[in-house]
Amino acid sequence: MTDDVRSSPHTGTVLPEGRPFWIVDGRAYDFTEWARIHPGGATWFGPSQGRDISALIHTYHRDPVRLRKFLSRYEIEGFTERDVLPKLGVPPFLLEPDFDAARDLPRLNYADEGSLLAEIRTAVNARFAKRDLKRLDRRFDLVTWAIGLAHVAMLGLFVGGLAPAWAFVIVMVLTRTALAGAGHYHLHRRWNDKKRLQTPLGKALFDINYVGTSLIGTDGHVLLHHPYMGSGADVKKTFFDGMLRLHPLLRVPGYTLHKLGICLLGLSMRAREIARFEQRGGNAAIRADFWIVRAWLLVELVACVATGHWLAWLVQFFLTLWFNTFLVVSSHDFEDDAPDDLSVIPVALRDDWAANQICLSYDLTIVGNRWIDLWLSAGLSPHRVHHVLPYQASGFANLKTEATVRAVSEQAGITWERPRNLLFDRFPAVIRHYLFRPVKALPPPSPPAGATPLVSAGGVPIPPGPVERPVRGGQLGMIVRYTADGFRGVGV
Question: Cβ contacts of residue 256 below 8 Å, gap of 6+?
Answer without folding.
Answer: 318, 321, 322
